[in-house]
């Protein structure tokens, strides 16, 4: 088991390195010279050259790449923001709690509501409860998260005045963001759970269990649910990664100063160090979640477990 | 005797299992599938009844009805009586039925690959059945389970392994072991060898016969393979489009077959000593169960069909002691 | 459907042309009520946008300076923006951009993905490993993130956005196709084709692909919806297509600073986007159900 975990962690690090490489390279070859952009309009060519040297932008590509990767992965140093001159890592650390708060609460909501709705719909297959739930889920999947957020602001903040429209402060500032971030994922989860449950219903081994004289409730608990769990876990994983990046947009809509907003602003203003740092952060965030999902998967499925457990 | 006006009290041969007028439908998207249309038969204790017919004839539905494990919806039992040792299973409360399943009646399913829960060890799955019907402690149940494994020819060390570690034939043995764990009075075997290759088929049949002899279990063997029937069954019921169209003992069916359909079944088997350029199938296909033809369901394909075949219910007639046939034109044919 | 009386029918050669399979699939899809609704909706929307010049009461850039920021009325069905431009008309014309975006990017991503994935899946060995590792790395960057990055790099504008979204879709498509191919690869008809000496390329295009392509249809369909949604998101955060192009996402971006005062500027474009994606998803769902062999009676 430990071997499997190690293997996956190693692969995750490789992937992140590759991600860093891709991001760095994309930004490197983007038209636009940061030194020029961040010099004042009255600067002379000589000044710009000096600035470029200061920023380390005149070194060869590979040197810059290596330097970036080395500093990022070994020292967690992403440089300083071109605009604000503060260390990127520092700023990310400051903003992290807010992003994580939205993300984690949204994931919990996703799990609880998504699973329950899915089980509810699945156990009432064909009846109105099923169709209604799935129709609603479909509507939420189709509707862009940020638009729902905007409409909720209009309704709850502007018209009703119950909740604040933007910013941070106490828990009430997080209510709408968390709900909006969770909505799409809940819908996906509900649909996936429902189809897994239905799939399991028809499985032969469920009939076998019944033919042994097992009571229905026990059949559901011992036979159906564990087998339905696996595709559900996959669905949850996908939902979670949607929440991770979606929260960046939510932060934009609600003006919450988290890591996501930091990234989006940097993208617009070409603040390369920030872009690199935040993008890597999101990639890592997603990768960790995927890793956890994989691990849970391997615990549940004996076919995978047996490959890494030593028997006898 | 089977047919109309049957009174169980009157005949001392009346079975330990007695099915009367079983009617089952499936509803799917506004269409009604008539799966079983008035099937009746009897079985004696210790006997093996072969149920023969094409895929979709309704054989599995009959078996699942006995156990009452048909999914409702879409299946619906419209009527009928199934008496086991005198008790009508159709009217038993579910709580009582739980005691019947596994303990009095057990079933072996067609596809061993999917019949076992992939996430439970086979040991646990056998123990589940054992503990449901017996007062074993954990240790006792585990011991009994191991014995069962040995009895079906699987090393008891494999007790803790998962289904994916077994081949199809071995999985089927496990399923058989599970079914016989509580020594049921009646075993329903639904095409137990269809999904296996021929050599394994022989082994599994052997095993079933051995266990049957040892426990004195009665068995309904569902199959479309006449060879298997010949090897293991005492009586045979031929099912077509949800009705039983012929019934008799092995000799009646294999040698003195009467119904044109049964005739067609045997005629389609190629003989060993005859050079045949083409196989002789029965022309046409089974009727659409949502739209059965009037009268005899076989008449559209029957080379001996007459006007009377189209009209109303054709009843089951006894053409020789213990041999029944549902055909109105038998004089003409023979 | 009554059973046939005649017994000895001549065996008719069955033509299993690709087109008849497609038609059959389409027919089956349209049986589900959801897909029917979705198709009707989608067709209506497409028609409305295509015939925008005939339906729209105003030109998209016509400014009615006497009615700036006016709420929905009989004069302007969906209100006007800060320059007095009729929102309803802008939505209709903008739909052409959004729908074109959706369909093009989705198709392009799928086609390229299919090609890459086919090469990987069919040839196997080192080619496969290299390609799939590349795809794995590409897809380890969360899709949305990748979209945002590429869009930021390529810049704003319609064509850049199409490109960005298509590239993001390629990795997804390649993975999916490769999984499908793995499933099909072990089937015997491929061995049979090789046995009669078909070239590898010909096997791939004439035998393998037609059988694998159907589920891709589902992805392409739902992809249209996803692309339109992502394009809207990109526009909103300042990338993608920007005003004054009346693309739906751009309309959202234009209205964002006024949501508290003039919510209709955001409400209508968003609603139209949601309905379009909803319609497309319904069709995609129906398509998926139609292709599921377990549900075929």
Short description:
The complex is a heterotrimer of chains A (312), B (334) and C (297). With 312 residues, chain A is mainly alpha-helical.
What does this structure look like?
The complex is a heterotrimer of chains A (312), B (334) and C (297). Chain A has 312 residues and is mainly alpha-helical. In chain A, 79% of the residues lie in helices and 0% in strands. Chain A folds into 2 domains: 32-75, no CATH class; 90-308, MetI-like fold (Orthogonal Bundle), CATH 1.10.3720. Chain A has 13 helices and no strands. The radius of gyration of chain A is 24 Å and the shape is flat. With 334 residues, chain B is an alpha/beta fold. Chain B has helices spanning 59-67, 94-100, 122-133, 138-151, 168-180, 198-215, 226-232, 250-254, 260-267, 330-333; strands at 17-28, 31-43, 48-52, 75-84, 87-88, 105-108, 186-190, 218-223, 235-240, 243-249, 317-320, 323-325. Chain C has one domain (32-56, 75-290): MetI-like fold (Orthogonal Bundle). Classes of the chains: A mainly alpha (312), B alpha/beta (334), C mainly alpha (297). The interface between B and C is small, with 10 and 8 residues.
Describe the secondary-structure layout:
The complex is a heterotrimer of chains A (312), B (334) and C (297).
Chain A: H1 2-28, H2 34-37, H3 45-54, H4 61-75, H5 88-123, H6 128-142, H7 145-159, H8 172-201, H9 204-211, H10 216-254, H11 259-269, H12 272-300, H13 302-308
Chain B: E1 17-28, E2 31-43, E3 48-52, H1 59-67, E4 75-84, E5 87-88, H2 94-100, E6 105-108, H3 122-133, H4 138-151, H5 168-180, E7 186-190, H6 198-215, E8 218-223, H7 226-232, E9 235-240, E10 243-249, H8 250-254, H9 260-267, E11 317-320, E12 323-325, H10 330-333
Helix pairs in contact in B: 3-4, 3-5, 5-6
Chain C: H1 18-29, H2 33-50, H3 52-55, H4 87-123, H5 125-140, H6 143-154, H7 158-185, H8 188-195, H9 200-236, H10 248-255, H11 264-291
Helix pairs in contact in C: 1-11, 2-4, 2-11, 4-5, 4-7, 4-9, 5-7, 6-7, 7-9, 8-9, 9-10, 9-11, 10-11
């Amino acid at each position: 088991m430990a071997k499997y975990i190690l293997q996956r962690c190693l692969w995750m690090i490789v992937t992140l390195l590759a991600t860093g490489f891709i991001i760095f390279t994309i930004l490197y070859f983007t038209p636009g010279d940061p030194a020029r952009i961040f010099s004042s309009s009255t600067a002379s060519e000589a000044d710009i050259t000096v600035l470029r040297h200061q920023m380390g932008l005149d070194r060869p590509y590979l040197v810059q790449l290596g330097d970036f990767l080395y500093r990022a992965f070994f020292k967690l140093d992403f440089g300083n923001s071109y605009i604000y001159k503060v260390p990127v890592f520092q700023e990310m650390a400051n903003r992290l709690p807010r992003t994580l708060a939205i993300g984690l609460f949204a994931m919990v909501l996703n799990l609880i509501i998504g699973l329950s709705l899915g089980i509810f719909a699945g156990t009432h297959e064909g009846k109105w409860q099923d169709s209604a739930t799935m129709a609603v889920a479909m509507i939420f999947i189709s509707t862009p998260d940020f638009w729902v957020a905007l409409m909720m602001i209009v309704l709850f903040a502007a018209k009703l005045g119950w909740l604040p429209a933007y910013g941070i402060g106490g828990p009430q500032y997080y209510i709408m963001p968390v709900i909006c971030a969770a909505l799409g994922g809940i819908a996906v989860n509900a649909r996936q759970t429902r189809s897994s449950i239905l799939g399991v219903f028809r499985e032969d081994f469920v009939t076998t269990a019944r033919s042994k004289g097992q009571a229905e409730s026990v059949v559901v608990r011992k036979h159906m649910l564990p087998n339905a769990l696996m595709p559900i876990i996959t669905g949850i994983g996908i939902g979670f990664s949607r929440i991770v990046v979606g929260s960046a947009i939510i932060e934009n809509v609600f003006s919450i100063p988290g890591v996501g907003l930091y990234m989006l602003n940097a993208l617009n203003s070409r603040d390369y160090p920030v872009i690199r740092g935040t993008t890597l952060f999101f990639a890592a965030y997603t990768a960790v979640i995927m890793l956890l999902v994989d691990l849970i998967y391997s615990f549940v499925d004996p076919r995978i477990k047996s490959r890494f457990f030593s028997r006898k | 005797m089977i047919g109309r006006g049957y009174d169980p009290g009157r005949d001392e041969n009346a079975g330990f299992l007695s099915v009367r007028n079983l009617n089952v439908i499936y509803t799917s998207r506004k269409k009604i599938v008539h799966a079983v249309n008035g099937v009746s038969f009897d079985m004696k204790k210790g006997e093996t009844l072969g149920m023969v017919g094409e895929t979709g004839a309704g054989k599995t539905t009959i078996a699942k009805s006995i156990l009452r494990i048909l999914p409702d919806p879409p299946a619906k039992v419209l009527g009928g009586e199934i008496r086991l040792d005198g008790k009508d299973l159709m009217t038993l409360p579910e709580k009582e039925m739980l005691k019947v399943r596994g303990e009095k009646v057990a079933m072996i399913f067609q596809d061993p690959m999917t019949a076992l829960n992939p996430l439970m060890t086979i040991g646990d799955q056998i123990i589940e059945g054992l503990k449901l019907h017996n007062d074993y402690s954990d240790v006792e149940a585990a011991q009994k389970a191991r014995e069962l494994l040995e009895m079906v020819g699987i090393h008891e060390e494999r007790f803790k392994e998962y289904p994916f570690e077994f081949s199809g034939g071995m999985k089927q043995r496990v399923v058989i072991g599970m079914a016989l764990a509580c020594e049921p009075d009646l075993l329903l075997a639904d095409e137990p060898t269809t999904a296996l290759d021929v050599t394994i088929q022989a082994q599994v049949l052997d095993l079933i016969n051995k266990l049957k002899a040892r426990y004195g279990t009665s068995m309904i063997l569902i199959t479309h393979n006449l060879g298997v029937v010949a090897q293991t069954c005492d009586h045979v019921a031929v099912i077509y489009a949800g009705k039983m169209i012929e019934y008799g003992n092995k000799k009646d069916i294999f040698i003195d077959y009467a119904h044109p359909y049964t005739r067609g079944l045997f005629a389609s088997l190629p003989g060993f000593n005859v050079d045949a350029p083409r196989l002789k199938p029965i022309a046409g296909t089974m009727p659409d169960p949502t739209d059965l033809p009037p009268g005899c369901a076989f008449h559209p394909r029957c080379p001996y069909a007459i006007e009377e075949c189209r009209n109303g219910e054709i009843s089951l007639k006894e053409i020789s002691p213990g041999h029944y046939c549902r055909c109105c034109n038998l004089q003409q044919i023979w | 459907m009554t059973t046939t009386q005649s017994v000895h029918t001549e065996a008719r050669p069955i033509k299993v042309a690709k087109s008849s399979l497609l038609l059959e699939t389409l027919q089956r899809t349209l049986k589900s009520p959801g897909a029917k609704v979705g198709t009707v909706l989608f067709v209506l929307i497409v028609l409305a946008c295509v015939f925008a010049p005939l339906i729209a009461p105003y030109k998209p850039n016509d400014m009615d300076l006497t009615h700036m920021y006016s709420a929905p009325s009989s004069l302007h069905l969906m209100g006007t923006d800060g320059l007095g431009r009729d929102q309803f008309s802008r939505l209709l014309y903008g739909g052409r951009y959004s729908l074109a975006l959706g369909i093009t990017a989705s198709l392009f991503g799928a086609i390229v993905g299919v090609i890459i994935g086919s090469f990987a899946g069919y040839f196997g060995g080192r080619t496969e490993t290299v390609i799939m590792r590349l795809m794995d790395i590409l897809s380890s960057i969360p899709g949305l993130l990748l979209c945002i990055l590429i869009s930021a790099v390529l810049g704003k504008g319609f064509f850049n956005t199409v490109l960005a979204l298509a590239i993001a879709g390629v990795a997804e498509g390649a993975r999916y196709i490769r999984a499908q191919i793995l499933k099909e690869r072990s089937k015997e008809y491929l061995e049979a084709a090789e046995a009669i000496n078909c070239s590898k390329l010909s096997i791939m295009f004439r035998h393998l692909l037609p059988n694998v392509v159907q589920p891709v249809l589902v992805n392409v369909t739902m992809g249209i919806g996803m692309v339109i949604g992502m394009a809207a998101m990109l526009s909103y955060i300042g990338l993608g297509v920007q005003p004054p192009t009346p693309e739906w996402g751009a309309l959202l971006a234009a209205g964002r600073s006024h949501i508290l005062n003039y919510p209709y500027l955001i409400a209508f474009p968003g609603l139209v986007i949601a309905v379009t994606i909803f319609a497309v998803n319904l069709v995609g769902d129906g398509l998926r159900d139609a292709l599921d062999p377990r549900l075929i009676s």
